[in-house]
Amino acid sequence: MHTDDEGLQRLYHELAELDRYSIEIGIFGDDDSFYAMIANVHEFGMAIHAKNGKYLTIPTKEAGGRKASEIPGLFRPKGKDVLAVADKSAENGIKVMFILKESVDIPERSFVRSTFDEKNDEWMDFLERQIEKLCDLEIDAQTVFNRLGAKIAGDIQEKIRDIRTPKNSPITVQNKGSDNPLIDTGGLRNHVTWKLVRDDELV
């Protein structure tokens, strides 16, 4: 059982610790650079241009995840911006494997900045309630920030799940099997997390 003096000293300590801690929220490149890149593309939008040659080759569902070089008999029908293979059973006698595009514009679908704009006041209220618990010595400073980080990360994950505009292109919907712009495997959403940072230089 703590004496009043011990409780007061602990309170002073934990209040001082509040100044030492901060949290970082997002998808961290050192954890998974692929998802950090995907997050950046969706957050700000991007125009993608062909690096080698004139066209990007955008696979259809028929390509089955294969590259153009892996599909024998691939050709470009005259006057068509597609790559296809001959297939007598298919309409027009061809099966389209790739759509050819000089560039693709991925629209901005902000899920980090937009969530901060929408939820900032709610997060501040949540933080105040956690600090009240700290003042009652129910939790420590580290717990305050871990709870805040978990809430913010959860709200951003929810935003990823709920975004519906701008919509995916029809070819993307066909390939993914769904019309949720930011969810395919769920990897992007699952990689949103937080880091607790402590400044040991403060005295």
Description:
The chain has helices at about 5-20, 35-45, 115-135, 140-160, 170-175, 185-190, and strands spanning about 20-25, 45-50, 55-60, 80-85, 95-100, 105, 195-200. With about 200 residues, it is α+β, with helices and mostly antiparallel strands. The strands form 3 sheets. A 3-stranded antiparallel beta sheet has the order 3-5-4, with no helix packed on it. Strands 1-7 form a two-stranded antiparallel ribbon. A hairpin with a 7-residue loop joins strand 4 and strand 5. The two termini are about 30 Å apart.
Number of DSSP E strands: 7
Helicity, as a percent range: 40-55%
Largest sheet: 3 strands, antiparallel
Runs with pLDDT <50, length 5+? Answer: none
Tell me the series of helices and strands, N- to C-terminal. Answer: HEHEEEEEHHHHE
Mean pLDDT: 83
Strand content: 15-25%
Secondary-structure content class: alpha+beta
| Physical arrangement of strands within the biggest beta sheet | 3-5-4
Q: What's the Cα radius of gyration?
A: 25 Å
Label the overall shape: rod-shaped
Report the span from N to C terminus: 29 Å
Our count of helices gives 6
